[in-house]
Amino acid sequence: MPELRKHRGRLTQSSIYRNLGDLEQAGIVRRVAGHDDHARYELDEYFIGHHHHLICVKCGRVSDFVVPHEAERTLNATLKKAAKVGKFRLTGHRLDALGVCVSCA
Ligand SMILES: [Zn+2]
Ligand SMILES: [Zn+2]
């Protein structure tokens, strides 16, 4: 986000967040759950594919990882069962792993 602010001097930070909020509502970007107050966004899975995140709890760095197909199936089956119990219609899932990255270790 600091980079964007630098290159678009005329945009205030709040207008950038407002625009991202619009893009989020339109389903183009989604907010990545971070460990601190800084909102992180990435393109929606529709564009970049289903994946998960490794989030550093110290610096907030986020990296992507893909779960093997078999594990995704198991995960979805588990979530479907939980959804059924909770009378909830499952439309997807998010799974973020928390830890400490190599530069913070
Ligand atoms: Zn880190
Ligand atoms: Zn998944």
* CATH level-1 class of the largest domain: Alpha Beta
- CATH-defined fold name of the largest domain: Dna Ligase, domain 1
- Share of residues in strands: 15-25%
Order of helices and strands: HHEEHEEHE
The hetero compounds bound to this protein are: zinc ion
CATH arch. level architecture of the largest domain: 2-Layer Sandwich
Domain module tally: 2
- Biggest β-sheet, characterized? 3 strands, mixed
Strand order of the largest sheet: 4-3-5
State mean pLDDT (0 to 100 scale): 85
The overall strand count is: 5
What structural class do helix, strand and pairing data support?
A: alpha+beta
Weakly predicted, low-confidence segments: none
| Total DSSP helices | 4
Helix amount: 25-40%
In whole angstroms, the N-to-C terminal distance is: 25 Å
Write up what this structure looks like.
With 105 residues, this protein is of the alpha+beta class. The protein has two domains: 1-49, no CATH class; 50-105, Ferric-uptake regulator, C-terminal dimerisarion domain (Dna Ligase, domain 1). The chain is 38% helix and 20% strand. It has helices at 2-7, 13-25, 45-48, 69-85, and strands spanning 29-32, 40-43, 52-56, 62-65, 96-99. The strands form two sheets. The protein has a three-stranded mixed sheet with strand order 4-3-5, with no helix packed on it. The chain has a two-stranded antiparallel sheet with strand order 1-2. A hairpin with a 5-residue loop joins strand 3 and strand 4. The longest helix has 17 residues, at 69-85. The protein is globular and about 50 Å long. The mean pLDDT is 85. The site of one zinc ion has 7 residues, from loops. One zinc ion binds next to loops.
